[in-house]
Structure formats: C-alpha cells, structure tokens
Model the fold of this input.
Amino acid sequence: MSAQHAGDLYGEMFLAEQGQAAKPSRLETWKKLWPGLAICGIASIAAAWLSEHYGAPIILMGLLIGLSLNFVTSDTRTHPGLDFASKACLRWGIVVLGTQVTLAQIVALGPVPFLALLMVMAAAMGAALLVARMTGASTAIGILAGGATAICGASAALALFGVLGGKRVSQAQFALTLVVISMASALAMSFYPPLAGMMHLDDRQAGFLIGASIHDVAQAIGGGYAYSDVAGSYATIVKLSRVALLAPVVAVVSLIFTDEDAGQRHWIRKLAMPWFITLFLAVVVINSLVTIPPFVVHLNLTLSKALLLLAVTATAMRSRLDLVMQMGWRAAMPVVAATLASLLVATAFSMVIL
Done:
C-alpha cells in the first residue's frame, strides 16, 4: 500500500479512487462509441439516399449496406458503438413509434374487423411455427418469423429478438429473417394493390387486405393510398392496430421464454415486460389522452424510422455474412409461409365480413 493510504484503516480513500477509476467519464464513453456510431450513421445515410432516389425500401437498403460492411467489425473499436446502436436505438425507436398509435384508432376499427385482424395475425404465427417445425428450426425462430410478419416487420423482429436473445436465435438467422421480411414487404406493396383491383374489392375491403397483410408500416400505408385515399385511410387504421398489439405479443413471448433462472423469480417479476415495451404502452396511452400537433407526430415518425434504421444497419454489420449464406432456403421458409398465410386469410376476411 502506498504512503498516502497508510492511515486509511478502512480503505475509504482507496475504494473511492478505485470507484472513480472504474467509472469512465461521459466524454470517454462517447469516444468509445464514436467509431461504431459514425460508420453506422454513414451507412444509414447512404441507405436513406438510395431509398429516396430509387424508391427502394429504406430498411432493406440499410440491411444490405450493413451486411456488405460487416468486415468493419474486425476492428474492435467499432464494437461498443454498434452494440449501442443495435440495442439502444432499437428500444427508443419502438418507444417513439408509440406516438403513431391511439386507442381511438383501434376502437374505430370495430369489433368484427378487429377479431378478423387477430385471426390474420394468428394465421401468420401458426404458419411460421408449423413450417419452422417442418424444416427442423426451433420454436423461437418460428415465433420470430411469425411475430415479425404478423405485427410490423423489422421493428417487431428487433423487439422479439431482444426478448428471445442470441442463445435461441443466432445472429445469422436473425439477419436472414430481416432480409426476407423486408423483401417480402417490398414485393407486397407492389403486388397487393393490383391484386385487390383484380378481385374488384371496394375501398374498405382493399384497405383491410393491405393493412392486415403488408409487414412494414410505411409500405402498408403507401400500398393503401396507392389503391385510393379511402383505402389508404382504412389501411392506416388496420396497420396501426397491428402495431398496438406489439406490446402484448412481446409480453407473452417474454413470459414464455424466460431465462434459465426464471424459476427462482417471483411470478410477478416473470410477468414484467421489457422496459421499452412498457414505455411504448405508456406513450400510446398518453397519445390517446393528449392531442399531439400533426407536425410533432410526423417528426416522431421520422425519428422512429431513423432510430430503427440505425438499429437494423448496426445489426446487419454485426452479422457474419458467411453464416447467413450457409443458412440455406429452409431458413427463409417460416417468413414465406407466414406471408402467404396472412395474405390468404386477410383476403378471405376482406371478402366475407366487409
């Protein structure tokens, strides 16, 4: 012990210095995060530019650019920033997404269409679980694929992966799921509105079909307005009702897939939802009680999309492309099955009950 600690009988001075040394300053923290965040930000800006100029889905662009840059993770300096973007940006992006949903929108949907929407989501989940079992994949992979398809695409996949964890779903499987979901959503936006026209659906029927079966929020709304303004408005209500169900679905999944030491926890703690899902619900309730100016709602939508884009891009960068390529076509089948199931069931309900 040094001379300055000779009279420190209880070690207070030594422990205080050790505690100060163990806790990095805010500046040091940002210096560690900066390399990964800078690369992720540049890649996300490139994805946004490509999306704006060529009409490609922004999430898909972020995924592909992120996968192409996965070699940057060989430099360990990027790890803290990419970890921060893939986790913190995801969670806060989902919280901000709650500003787009109100309880009044769900009520406006009506009980019968809402029950039909639940059946569409159940069909997507069931098909993904069935095909996952048929192809030898785990139940967790089926839930990831089915939940992401049934709710809101990449953002739901990110939320579910945060609950399931890397032990149950590999990073390669997760990256492949994101890619297939984004591609399926892009194709759906292009083909579902003409399909509704070929079936001679009215505006309300087409809005339900598009809003209940297209994965991504922006693409579901865009597909609805591509059919008509009335269909776009109804597709928006249907789609945001699906987004509102993100919280209960994640809560159920987190309850089922508890940690190994969950048996030692009190049952009330097992029921606790992830903090960002709890905040998402709180934001939805506040948004339902307080009228938020339209420009703030639009600004929050942009912020949510930016945060989720950063999370997706960082997740893709952290994925090993060689493992993704080794997954094979069977790994993509749960998403494909869930997509087809949601389309068929949504089409049936749109023609029968509306």
